[in-house]
Amino acid sequence: MQKSLPPIKRDIQSRKRWLGIALVVASFAFYGCLLLVPISSLSAEEKIALSAALVFLGEGSFWLAVIILGREAMAKYRDFNWQERLLAWRKWVEEKIKSKKT
Prior knowledge:
Elements: H1 8-33, H2 44-69, H3 71-79, H4 82-101
Helix pairs in contact: 1-2
């Protein structure tokens, strides 16, 4: 009689997926931090080094996420209609602003 093992593979796949998503979010955060570098009180050399490090971390985390998530997830990300989503979000914000004015 064989003992059935718990479904470990599914748990590992789920963790890989969440790690990949976290890395994509981290890459956006690293690039977002680039906007704060010019207003920091660092010297010019330190700003250059920090900017280079943030770009390196942003690219590295994004491509590591691509490797972890795989080709299908990145194809889905690439095919997502960002323009339509952003226009809908902009319209929603404008409606909220108009409703607060009245």
